[in-house]
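hi support,

uploading two proteins for the ticket. first:
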Amino acid sequence: MTSATARPSDRRISPVFLGIVAVAAVTGWATWTGFAEQPGVAVFLFVTAAWVVSLCLHEYAHARTALHSGDISVGAKGYLTLNPVKYTHALLSIVLPVLFVIMGGIGLPGGAVFIERGRIRGRWRHSLISAAGPLTNVLFAVVCTAPFWLDALDGVPRDFRIALAFLALLQVTAAILNFLPVPGLDGYGVLEPWLSYNVRRQVEPLAPFGLLIVFALLWIPALNGVFFDAIDAILSGLGISEIDTYCGFELYRFWQTDELCSVVG
């Protein structure tokens, strides 16, 4: 078993991540104040930057939990720096999830951290490592929806409100998709330590295709409708209307307009 020596730089927050946080903060402020001449551009940058921040924190949660569970190698791999380019492949981890947001308004699970599972003892620890990521999305969803279910929207500008509603939708979809017990997704990672060796061996070849299978199924209109009906029901229970998430998505895609959303207050 190899050893890993901890260095201060292994845990130093990446300037790349801080830059993304700064973009989210500045464009969020521009959306709130109406400072931007084209609010759609500000909303696009705000939601995209906030979404990438949540992707980084999702993977960081996996890595941090693994660190405390016994895998000290995660620091040397750069997983504790919150640098998005350290999480597997930039295209698969960041670009592809952002493209799915643009095309379909859905939170694609992105990125991955490679945990040296042999360093970790105990099935509960393995399950917790897998659960830590999507639980971060749940926490993000709670933060994004809090103004709605706390009825604290007085004085919140319309553009910021619907942008926050759309961001909440992304976090809820990401949490649900990640928790599906499908090989390759975190939900299966939670269950895997409790399965027999034979079952794990039979299922393992499916892991690289699990996410593709899920999204192929979501292309089926009936299943897509059931999925988004469930998302809308959850958001409605948290005080977010379907029109808010719809108009948030439309404003996010600033290159197109919708007359319905232009009259929504």
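and the second one:
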Amino acid sequence: MENRELLEQHLQEIQVWEKDQKDLWFWEKLGRIPFKLLDKMTPAFLQNKIALLVDELGNYIQSGGKYLINEQAMIQKIRDHSSTQHIITISDIGQIPLEDMISLSDKLQNERVKFATVQGVSTGFGGIFTLAIDIPMILGTALKTLQEIAIIHGYDPNDKMERIFIVKCLQFTSADIVGKEAILQELSTINSSKKASDNMISQLQGWQEVFYTYRDQLGWKKLFQMIPIAGMVFGAYANKGMIQDVAETGIMLYRKRRIYEKLTELDC
């Protein structure tokens, strides 16, 4: 059984993190400007690629699409690295100690950040032409990372509501102060009622809102990635920062859900 004092301590850390998210760095504010100019400079084939990704994100929420991961492989990985061996299903993972979840999450974040950095270097080599490859790859990496984080905390990404939660995590990463507060409020009610779930779906206002917010967050970073050769440096920096932020958001928000559920179990 989890220790209440330890759970509440971790919950306080998450609340501090949430407060820190309510202010944008100067560069993040500046980063929302260049992509509006970049739209006018972007070739048609890249604009078409972006349009396709909007549809793919919608398909992911509805069915998982090509981004849905193999949960059995992830369960085995968790079983191998957890102090609890009796793990058969994703719901069993919810019962492992929080410290195991933290350890597994940190390891996953480091692995995905390294992968994204290498990816940014390789796709930054050719400037704007390989940028067309990089954008869908980084989106896929972000969704895969968030699904893995969900499973680490005992939540099944095969469930449509979890996929909505995942897309909300993606949206939270690049939202402004007002947006972050609204998303935190929405996510706090995700399991409370079907009406709350329906409201969350409607508040996405189409998948375009989520994707373009995500894209704007890359801003000036991806602008410089358009330069051949030099784009390797900027690509590595942009992708590393993106996945690091996405993973941190997913870890904190999923950990918060799991802590509340563990505290509820202690009260029963």
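thanks. also noticed: The chain has 13 helices and no strands.
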